[in-house]
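Review this:
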Amino acid sequence: MAARLKKEDEAWLDQPPSPFALPLLLGAALLSAGLVFYAAGNVALAAGFGASIIAIAALMRWYRHLYPAALSHSEATPDWTVARAAADASHIAIAVTDRAGRLVCASDLFGEWFPGYPTPPGVTGDAALTESLSQAARAAWRDGDGKLEGLAMGALRLDVDIARTGRSEDYLLWRFTPVRQPSALDDVHRFLTGEAGRQLGEAGIMAVMIGGEGRIRAANGAFLLRAAGRIDANITGRDFAAHMRVDDKGRLFLAREENGGLPLRLLQVPLRRASQPGGAQGSAQDGPMLLLLIDEPSGGGGTSALSYIETLLSLLPFGLAMADRDGRILFVNKAFARAAGLKAGTKPSYPGDLVAREDQAAVADAVRRFAVGPQMSGDIVVRMREQPDEPTALSLAGVRGLGEAAVLLSLKDNSEESKLKRQVAQATKMQAIGQLAGGVAHDFNNILTAIIGHCDLMLMRHTPGDSDYDDIQQVKSNSNRAAGLTRQLLAFSRQQTLRPQILQLPDIVSDVSNLLKRLLGENVRLEVSHGRNLGAVRADPGQLEQVIVNLAVNARDAMPEGGTLNIQTYAVPAAKAREMRQQILPISDYTALRVSDTGLGIPPDILAKIFEPFFTTKELGKGTGLGLSTVYGIVKQSGGYIFAESELGRGASFVIYLPVYAGADAEEEAPLREPVKRAETWGSGTILLVEDEDMVRAVAERALTRQGYKVLTANDGEQGLEVLAAHDDIDLLISDVVMPNMDGPAMVAQARRTHPRLPVLFMSGYAEEQLRKSIDIANVAFLPKPFSVNQLAQAARDTMAMQPAAE
């Protein structure tokens, strides 16, 4: 509409006046004067009004001839030269098309990326991509904008944004933006544009990073100043070759310096490679690289330039080394030495000295080819001598003009990655050992239950002083010691029964301090300190005491000549936990317990194994190797984390992080029962005993029968339900949890349908806390194995007294 009005105005201005224009104007003036005279009755006023109309019409005609553009109803023709200059300044590819599908404007970068300035959407020969661009264009005409992501143009990947624009919205603006791939190259980008890049510039070294397509991604100030004339110039995305020139002798110069500049030495450092096992591949143009430009000293070779390179390589954060044509290593930086496992101040003679014997020939051959062949780069997969089980990519690049240096070696530092792999492997191994230990402890608990039960039954028939009484007592004592070992195994596997309470760590440390002073002896001094604002934790106080005692005893043994044992408690808020950047420790509020000593320390190769069960560095017969594994299991079962820190000759520290309890309503702990006298364990009634282990079932049946109960037995859950259906006078159901065919929880769930008020006592070698999470049955009691005859009788009496509410 605006374009049509504009054409009408221009046509009206260019045509001569119509012959009817003056009579029509005079007629309109007389008619207006007549209307005024009729309304006002004044001749002078009417004549003046008609004359004013004629004067205004004349002035408008005269003004239109003087300023025709000011009265145009539509916009002027766009100045595409200004639009193109603005597009070039944005450093992205821009094109503008009209409704007829014609290209009316495009930036220079658009012409570089799409030679010949093709009209969008026909910028690519791929019919599918052209159709996708056409659909995005139709969406832009319809909705105002369209988008296509991941347009592939050779090495470029572009995002295309299309927008409807113009006052009449009769143009489409096409913007082609390179896709930025986040990678480790960001570190190199920050290196060049930061303080390190500035220091390189002060040393006379220009550094620039280019992509595989040959365009600049980052540069330091020295290159910007000399290549573009300003240190704040923005040349990102420009073609690197456009800033360089080569003379007839093959020497490299900056294009801007023309004949006044010095020749430059160019060192190419490949930054990323797609490697394949078994050999080198690719070229330096396949991926991003770091280019180092150094002024060639007048009349000099590469010796002084080499010193510049060595200074640079020592600053770079990735491992680099240089070797001569014979394969001898000339220089290694700190990152390379760390990745290769070299000691400080040492330098190998040849690259083959760093790798396993099987890979030495391949490395020597690759160095020789890169040193004397055409200038190229590639990767070779090797196994380092210090870590033969972990393949590592060794990058090689041939360099020329640096004196003795002929090959540049790059080695990735895999220390952190290897550390994470070892931690995952250790966690997997510990989990497998924990499952094995839990299963062994469960089966062993059944055997100990039978042994302890039979000992109790025999002791009932003997009195102190009998010939067999002491022997039976000794068997029971040894069985109880074995039960203690199984509890430690269950603690390690996080399957022991805990009685958690809401408590403060300083209180636990105070309760156990007197015991520690007796255990540590006179040569070890105990120091205790507590922080402020400690949050409460939820844990079993008895188990925490065992944790502190075990750590203290280990610390005492690590200080044979005496020392200091320091126990600290302090708060670790979430902000501090975040600053620690500990990958295993989640961000939360913790209360920490640190137990440290001034002993001999733990060697690094042993530090990773100290929490494994049965691992000990003590002499044969001194220690079971379950102390630290028990500590580990208790801490993990309590929801906490434990870390060991040590330095040889300077002692060791164990730090435990327990999460701060944030529950508003803690579960009330059951009140302590009064000790039950032996006479009170007698009872009456009928008990159904379901146990798949014959020896456990036999000793439990005899024990309950001697206490006055009538006992019915069953081998599994199915037989238990049959016995229950055949007897209506059963007062208590005692059942094992894990049984073949039908386990205890499944049997109890069916039994409760017909006997909703039947008391139930579960007995198992697994942890009560773990079982209650998997058993969704209310009003049941629990008896952990192994148990004595008296404990079984007490549990039976207490459970029968617990009458659940009727459903």
Notes: The two ends are 83 Å apart (CA to CA).
